């Protein structure tokens, strides 16, 4: 059973999402909250698999709430999906940097919401690497450099190469083919890079690849 926490300051949004999710046999809505601080507290209490988290809320916004959830070792298995009215923007970009697994626009189709919850619960990045790369590339191209990525110096040359390919949107199988290694070895390199950089998933690793300069915006794969 996938356990979901809904955090949004709009009661109608919370009620609509709850009704949709609760109708599924494999999903349970364990709680909901109207602000980010309460959302963090409920995440600690219930340890949900997925948190659907509004990016703009009172008391504590979605970015800081994501950062607190992502940085708490007790919530290592909790996956945050950001909810937004506007699509990919600075708020969503910063939420991905803070540890969110992906984002959804609030008017998304019901089937897409359900699929997103299931993908996030598995621990996968909500967006495909290629889509994430395209969005982040476009945003990074028009924003100032964020500074050094903590932990980058700990990566081996091989791990840096793999991280750059992840940033370009390649899957583990594609990385394996490009580097002439096995898919298992590619997966190991990706996992080690994520561990050293404390990236929660591939979406955040893509962000770090751009911020570190390993991948330049709008460069081809």
Automatic annotation (TrEMBL):
Residues 148-213 form the HTH luxR-type domain. Residues 3-121 form the Response regulatory domain. One of its GO terms (molecular function) is DNA binding. The modification 4-aspartylphosphate is found at residue 54. PROSITE patterns: HTH_LUXR_2, RESPONSE_REGULATORY. Keywords: DNA-binding, Phosphoprotein, Transcription, Transcription regulation. It comes from the Bacteria. The keyword Transcription regulation applies. It comes from Kibdelosporangium banguiense. This is DNA-binding NarL/FixJ family response regulator. SMART domains: HTH_LUXR, REC. It holds the Pfam family GerE.
């Amino acid at each position: 059973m996938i356990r979901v926490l809904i955090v949004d300051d709009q009661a109608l949004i919370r009620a609509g999402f709850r009704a949709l999710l609760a109708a599924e046999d494999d999903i349970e809505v364990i709680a909901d909250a109207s602000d980010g601080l309460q959302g963090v507290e409920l995440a600690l209490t219930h340890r949900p698999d997925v948190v659907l988290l509004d990016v703009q809320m009172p008391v504590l916004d979605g970015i800081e709430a994501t950062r607190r959830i992502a940085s708490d070792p007790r919530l290592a298995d909790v996956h945050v999906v950001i909810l937004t009215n506007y699509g990919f923007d600075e708020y969503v970009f910063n939420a991905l940097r803070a540890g969110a697994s992906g984002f959804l626009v609030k008017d998304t189709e019901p089937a897409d919401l359900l699929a997103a919850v299931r993908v996030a619960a598995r621990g996968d990045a909500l967006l495909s690497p290629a889509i994430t790369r395209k969005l982040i590339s476009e945003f990074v191209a028009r924003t100032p450099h964020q500074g050094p990525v903590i932990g980058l110096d700990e990566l081996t040359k091989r791990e840096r190469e793999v991280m750059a390919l992840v940033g370009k949107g390649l899957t583990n199988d594609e990385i394996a083919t490009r580097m002439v290694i096995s898919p298992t070895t590619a997966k190991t390199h990706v996992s080690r890079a994520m561990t050293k950089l404390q990236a929660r998933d591939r979406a955040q690793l893509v962000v770090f690849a751009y911020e570190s300069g390993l991948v330049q915006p709008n460069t081809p794969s």
